[in-house]
Amino acid sequence: MQGTLRIFELSQACKNLENFIHISTAYTNCDRKGYIEEEIYNSEQDSQGMINQFLAMHPDDLEKNTKKILGKFPNTYVFTKGLVERILKKRRSNNMTVSIVRPTVIGAAFREPYAGNLI
Description:
By secondary structure, this protein is mainly α. The protein has helices at residues 2-12, 47-56, 59-64, 66-70, 76-91; strands at residues 19-23, 97-101.
């Protein structure tokens, strides 16, 4: 989460960079019911404010409150991907396009183009 936002800040300083590509997940809107558009839905809460609040919490308190924080989201991965998408939407500027790719699964390749690690 923080790494993506730091890379985005760095990308904004690049004069000739035209597109920032963020790899997210197809499940960022899994907290919604019914027909779900391919868009970044607004949240009632400020995403950056939430991140700042989490960073200020003691790790034990954060762990105790994880289920409450996640709400309808199944895990922290999906939850934080959604937070980052909303922050990128808010921080984007007219001089650089932000593209968000939402694959369902990412995994290592068996042979090509490069062999992944087999456990």
